[in-house]
Amino acid sequence: MSDACGCEVTPKKTSNHLVIIGGGSAAFSAAIKASELGAKVTMINGGLPIGGTCVNVGCVPSKFMIRACDTIHKANNHGFNGIETNGRVADYRQVAAQQRQLVVELRHAKYINVVADLPGFRMIEGMARFVSPKIVEVNGENISADHVLVATGASPYIPPIPGLADINYLTSQTALDLDKLPESIIVLGGRYIALEMAQMLSRFGCRVTMLQRSSRILPTEAEGLTGELTKHLTDEGIEIVTGVALTDISRTNGETTVEAIVDGAKRTFKASELLVTTGRKPNTDNMGLEEAGVALDENGFIKVDDNLRTSVKTIYGAGDVIGEPMFVYTAAYEGALTAENAVTGSSKAKDYTALPWVIFTDPQVAGVGLDEREAKEKGIDAEASTLPLSHVPRSLAGCDTRGFIKLIRDKKTDLLVGARIVAPEGSELLMEASLAIKHGITVKEIVSAFHPYLTLSEGIKLTAITFGKSVDKLSCCAV
After folding, report:
1. Which tens digits make up the pLDDT trace of 56-77?
2. Do 127 and 175 fall into the same domain?
3. What confidence score (pLDDT) does residue 13 get?
C-alpha cells in the first residue's frame, strides 16, 4: 500500500494495529505517537483535506486574515502624535490568495510530510464506517484493527431557523473562501468564532451587525469581561444586538433579511450577506457508531471516559468529536493520549488542569483556571485583583491601554486559581498564570520574581502586587 505521498511503505511487523478515522490534529498526533510505540497505523480521512479544521478552514486561515486586517486598523488608529499613517485594502483577492498559499504550505509541511516516512503507516482517502467494534469499512475494503480511534472533528452547526435552509449563507469556513468582501453582513452568534469573524470583516471594511440570542456576548464569562470587549467592538462600529429571538430569514434581490424579536419588539435587519456562527456539531453521522455500540450524548458527540475510551473498550475518541474543549492543542494532546492507552494498554487519564484559552479579537480575550464565581462554587474563598492596562508602563508607552488583567487567588493558601485578561496580545501573558496554577506558585512568589521593565508581562506582577498594595503607591519597578 502507499502512503500520503504515493510512496510504498512496508509495515513494521507488529500485532498491534491502530486504525484512526480522521485526518486532523488529533489523528496525526495519535499516528505519530502510535508509530513511536511500534504500532501499525492506518489513517482513514474523508471530508476536509488532510490537516482537518485547524490548518484548512480554522486556526491558520482565520489568524492570517485577523493579522492582515489588524495591519489596516493599526495604520489608521494609533495614539502617537505627529505621525500620519493610513491603510486600506487595495486588492482583497491577493490577501485571500496569500492566505490560501500559506494553508497549502503548512498542510504539506506539518501534516503530509510528517507522516510520509512513518514505518507501518498507511493513509486511505475515503469515508469510514464501522462493520464491528474492530472492523472498519472504507472504499469497499474491510480493515481489521486491535483498536480504533475516532477523531473526525466537528463542523458548523446550522440552527433550524425558519427560512435559513432556503437561502445561501456563509459559515466560518466558507467566509474564508471569499475573493470579494460584502458591503454589509449579519453575523449570527456571539461567542469565540462569531466575535473573531465579525471584527475581522469589520476591519476589512464590511458593515457588521451581530445578533446574539443571549443577553450578552460570551455569556459564560463574567459581565466585566464581556462588557469590556463589547465596548471596544462597538467603538469600532460593530453593531451588537443581544437578547435576539430569530423568527424568519429570507433573501431577495441580493439582500438577506432577518426578522427577529428583540426586547419584545419586532425588528428587521438587512445586509448583503449572512454569516452563521452558532456553534459546532460533531462529525458522527453515517459512521455506524451506534451499530458498533458507541454511545453518543444528546448532541451527537461521542461519550468518553477519563481515559478517552468510548462505551466500547476497543474504540477511543479524541478531538472536537468528543465535545468541549474544542481547541487544536487539546485535540493533539488527546490524540497522543489515546494512542498511548490503546497501544500500551495503559489507563492514563486526561488532565485539563490550568487549560489556557484565547479569543483572537483585538483586544484579545484570554483565560485560564477559575473565575470568582467558579472558585466560590468549588468552595474556595476566592479574591480577585484587577489592574487596568492604564497602570502598565508598557501599555502607556505603546499608547494602547485597552483592557485589564485580572488574577484570582485562594485567600487561604495564596495560590493562584485563575486569570482573565483583556489586552492587545493578551494571549502572550497567559502562560505565566497557567504555569503558576499548574505548579502551585503563590501570588507572593509571582511578586518576588523578576519581570523586565516595560514588558507587558510586568502587568502580571503589578496585578499580583495589588492584592496587598495600591499600584498608585508604587514607583517604576518598585515592589
Report:
1. 999 999 999 999 999 999 999 9
2. no
3. 38
| Confidence (pLDDT) at 470 | 85
Residue 81 within any structural domain of the chain: no
Residue located via cell numbers 464491528: 132
Q: Are 322 and 307 in contact (CB under 8 A)?
A: no
Q: Is residue 11 part of a domain?
A: no
Do 144 and 237 fall within a single domain?
A: no
Confirm whether 340 is domain-assigned.
yes
Give the closest residue to 206 by CA, choosing from 234, 238, 232, 168: 238
pLDDT value at residue 7: 47
Which CATH number is 467's domain given?
Answer: 3.30.390.30
CATH number of the domain enclosing 196: 3.50.50.60
Contact 9, 2 (CB under 8 A): yes
Find out whether 127 and 286 touch, Cβ atoms under 8 Å: yes
The span from the CA of 25 to the CA of 8, in Å, is 24
pLDDT at residue 469 in the model: 87
Does 350 fall in a domain? no
Longest dimension (CA), the chain: 74
Q: Give per-residue pLDDT as tens, 204-219.
A: 999 999 999 999 999 9
The residue type of 118 is: L
CB 476: neighbour CB atoms within 10 A?
8
Q: The domain containing residue 314 runs over which residues?
A: 17-55+95-156+281-344
On the question of a cis peptide bond just before residue 325, with omega within 30 degrees of 0, the verdict is: yes
* Whether residue 152 is found in the same domain as residue 168: no
| Ranges of residues in the chain whose predicted pLDDT is under 70 | 1-15, 477-479
